[in-house]
Amino acid sequence: xxxxxxxxxxxxxxxxxxxxxxxxxxxxxxxxxxxxxxxxxxxxxxxxxxxxxxxxxxxxxxxxxxxxxxxxxxxxxxxxxxxxxxxxxxxxxxxxxxxxxxxxxxxxxxxxxxxxxxxxxxxxxxxxxxxxxxxxxxxxxxxxxxxxxxxxxxxxxxxxxxxxxxxxxxxxxxxxxxxxxxxxxxxxxxxxxxxxxxxxxxxxxxxxxx
DNA sequence: CACTCGATGTTCT
DNA sequence: GAACATCGAGTGG
Length: 210
Fold this sequence. Notes:
With 210 residues, the chain is of the alpha+beta class. It has 5 helices and 9 strands, in the order αααβββββααββββ.
């Protein structure tokens, strides 16, 4: 596929209506599940990339696994923004991850996007990722950010408008798997059932225990 | 397949 | 100094 630059209208027609701010202003666990099956889209001059959200995690107030657990810092400030705020952070000093804020300003809850099924701009994703297999392009929170070109530049941005938004596919999520969150140390909320995925998707970062 | 390890910004001890 | 919402290269079965 060529790197044609679609207008906002073209994109909206092709990919469905943009999910509005009210979509995110619900209990965070509900948003994390409702996002499954919807389309994350990044529109840039070098091309448009998009993928179906197949895996998410919820991070809550009073949650020792959350970056906001010890209060506001320079890094996590976007988590305290209004619903629909984009929170990006650098992990292990090398990769980017992206979250969407779900609560009113001052209440730091968010959904981490953990995996996508590639849908649009797949050749651009392959160039950015340096891998060919479809299953390796977006199956992890840092992988999908590299594939879509998501960086710190989007931190504090608004997920309800370009350049990064979620399009409503109009499809029900299908069967949702629930599990424990990935990568959290013992005693830091690692047991909480706050990871969600589309059952049977080959694009998950890891399989769910049955 | 399982496991180890290096990359290194931000936060905490 | 150590730990961390990770990934990919390397080793060994």
